[in-house]
Hints:
This protein is α+β, with helices and mostly antiparallel strands. The chain has helices spanning 13-20, 49-55, 107-112; strands spanning 5-12, 31-38, 45-47, 59-66, 72-85, 88-96, 104-105, 115-118, 123-126. It has one domain (5-114): Beta Barrel (Cathepsin D, subunit A, domain 1). The strands form 2 sheets. The protein has a 6-stranded mixed barrel. Strands 8-9 form a two-stranded antiparallel ribbon. The N and C termini lie far apart (33 Å).
Amino acid sequence: MGTVYAELTLRNEGDVREAARGIIKSEVIRFTTVKAIVDTGAYSIMIDKETMDKLGLEAVGEQKIRIANGERLTCPVTEAVEINWKDRQSVMRAIAVPGLPQTLLGLLPLEEMDLVVHPSRHELVGVHGDTIEYMAY
Length: 137
């Protein structure tokens, strides 16, 4: 199918909450913009240590993962990060993979933002067009 990329803005979700409460000014929210590889084989968002440090995220646990070459690693799991793509967002913990060459955007944030990979255009698109729709049962 080819590689699909997405430009994401990542923000420290703890900073976002503190700004909403008036504890800090919104101008000091730590953020970064990354060009991520969309990886539907990954389940979460995976970032490198540099991104983790830039966002000021602390490790809150560990996760065992297996990378593409079959190697198994134990990686830090971070505090929540806010993932923004165009007008959509997802909030979740990230997995910080040592030596990761590029951020990976996995299935869970794609699902939460109601996104899929368009197979012929090689880009992210909304499952329901430009409107986010959630199924309620």
